[in-house]
Write a structure and sequence with these properties.
Elements (H helix, E strand, L loop, with lengths): L2 H4 L5 E2 L7 H15 L5 H14 L3 E3 L2 E2 L2 E4 L6 E11 L9 E10 L4 H14 L2 H9 L3 H14 L1
Parallel strand pairs: 1-5, 3-6, 4-6
Antiparallel strand pairs: 2-3, 5-6
């Protein structure tokens, strides 16, 4: 699945507020619920937190990819965020996170979920992509940089 199919300008959030992992996940859940009213923000939040309890989705280099399968989710949904300051996310390299890509997929999505996670992780493994995204000053710019970076990859 392409990044453009997952992400929308309204779910590209530059400078998302949040002083902790839970607060960031709550703000992401609320943003999703605003764009997809059929998805309850509490349910989204609880599913993301439940996944984090299994192990941190902080993959290192200041990046986290929180994700979950979600009842009632009809198609994969992505949310791209930057945050300042960086937040402790229990990442594998113990570095705080300032770049997040949240992924929600339908409950019965198995292989597509794994494939999409791998594509996102590969994109964020490129330091040039991470640097560009961190330089974004608006949500529209963040969205455009992400889509262009994915298309060039």
């Amino acid at each position: 699945m392409t990044l453009e199919a997952l992400l929308s300008p309204r779910l590209s959030l530059c400078h998302l507020a949040g002083s902790s992992k839970k607060k960031l996940l709550l703000n992401i859940a609320q943003a999703i619920s605003e764009q997809y009213p059929n998805l309850d923000s509490d349910t989204v939040f609880n599913q993301l937190v439940a996944r984090e309890r299994l192990g941190s989705t902080g993959i290192g280099e200041g990046v986290a990819i929180p994700h979950c399968r979600l009842p009632g989710c009809e198609r994969p949904i992505g949310v791209l965020c930057t945050t300042s300051p960086a937040v402790d996310f229990d990442a594998i390299d113990r570095q705080p996170v300032d770049l997040l890509f949240a992924l929600l997929v339908p409950e019965d999505s198995d292989q597509e979920h794994l494939d999409t996670l791998a594509e996102i992780a590969a994109l964020f493994s490129d330091s040039r992509v991470r640097d560009k995204l961190r330089e974004a000053t608006t949500s529209d710019e963040l969205y455009a940089l992400a889509i262009n970076s994915a298309a060039a990859a």
